[in-house]
Amino acid sequence: MGAFGNEMSDFGETAMERGYAGCHGCGNTQALGDGECHRCGAPLHFRKALSIQKTLAFLATAIILYIPANVLPIMHTIQLGRSSPSTIIGGVVKLFEHHSYGIAIVIFVASVFVPMAKMLILAYLCMVAKWPKLSGPGQASLLYRVTEIVGRWSMIDVFVVAVLVAMIQLGGIMAVEPGPAALAFAGVVFATMLSAMSFDSRLIWDSQSPGKDKA
Amino acid sequence: MSILEESSQDASGGESELMACHQCDLLVEVAELEEGSKALCPRCSHKLQASPRGGVSRPLGLSIAALGLFGLSNAFPFMSFKGAGQEQMITLCHNVMELYRHDSELLALTVFGLVVVLPCLYLVATILMLIPMRKGRRHPAFPGLAKIVFGVGPWAMVDVFLLGVLVSLTKIASMAKVELGLSFIAFVLFAAAFSMVVSSMDKEWLWREWERLETK
Known about the structure:
Chain A is built from seven helices and six strands. By secondary structure, chain A is α+β, with helices and mostly antiparallel strands. In chain A, helix 1 runs antiparallel to helix 3 and helix 2 runs antiparallel to helix 3. The N terminus of chain B is likely disordered. Chain B is elongated, with a radius of gyration of 22 Å. In chain B, a hairpin with a 6-residue loop joins strand 3 and strand 4. The relative contact order of chain B is 0.15.
């Protein structure tokens, strides 16, 4: 953008370089001042405080909960008095054996692939924020956006268990009961969502600040 | 500083606003958006602001419709399930109560919160927030309600629940006959309306519209 003249690069400057902060509550951009947004009253800061630490803390919670979520049964199917537990992966395998490939893929993506990918991406993003040379900011930013949008869909499996438990209650003939992994898995989804929300994506771009190397 | 002051003094139409991109902190000048258009950050292409077609009336109308549909989807049987000579009929709330009965109180609360409480809270707060706006009034309750709406938003999982219901339906369909009730249709429509509300509620755009009301 030529209007800015020679002293700045293509994109102008960031809010922080100008002493401004964008409010998270309402989007209003203003001088940092006394640290309170004059439009909505939310606390104002250049970057989220302790962003990386909080992201990593929620991430660690998610990883710990991910173990019982996969090892313990997510539900018990009781058929003619016999109870058979099934885990998340076991459920996917069973669906494949029954040739329900479509649902098997939906469950696999939502319950196995997305949570794993999300945890890896969040760890990677924290590394990028610390060591910017690892990745281009455009690519890292895209990863973050996808992670934020896709994350909540992992809850599918928990809802499936809830619906099956409510639906299939035919006494001794056939019944479904929830297993402990359902709650643990809900915890994984919550923790990864909170982790993604705590991450400040502006940290990815800070090393690239358009005015930084010029000033 | 000067640019900020200029934009706030210029109260006539067509003003532009200086905005920091939430994702990369770039300062971008955002012109007043036409209905149905959105502004993207030139550096990281994150959405800066979006104005829905139909303005404030769109999310308001859709929220009222969604609340009505939610009421309907609780009034009739959700679906029924026939197998081994027995029939089981459930309603939406039955879902949660059954979990509760199986000593999964926390799981029941989670599902109830994500599918019933938070979506309803979201819709009620949205309606309360938008009615004065549509009348052109700058209501002092707006900041509080906006905080509720945009805080609750990501945790209201109506759409995810619907996909979960569809998956479990196909699972059950191989074992027994499933019949979908009237409520199921109402719930599908509710989920559609709800998603449309969420996609037309842009935080930055709403705050900007609300702030403009004072000058009128």
